[in-house]
Design brief:
There is one protein chain. The protein has a domain of 40 residues. The chain contains 2 helices and no strands. The chain is mainly alpha-helical and 95 residues long.
Amino acid sequence: MYDASGQPQSVTLASYLMPTIAEIPNIGVRLFEDAPTPLNPLGVKGAGEAGISAAGAAIAAAVDDALGRPGAVRQLPITPNRLHALLAEIPAAEH
């Protein structure tokens, strides 16, 4: 929520209202793939495998954007020491 001047009113997790079932739209799930695997007698596939999360890349891109240096972050996690090193590479006139 924001006030009339655009200032956020939910600035902590204590004041941020989590969505409930009433706010979540109906979601319809349809599975169209019927491709059993030939790798086992039952043709079943694993259900526990998940894709790689892009959260780290998104945070790295946000730090790159904040620094004004695309590709500056080349290693995760972005520790305080690594961030300080990146900041030290920026000329003082640009701070």
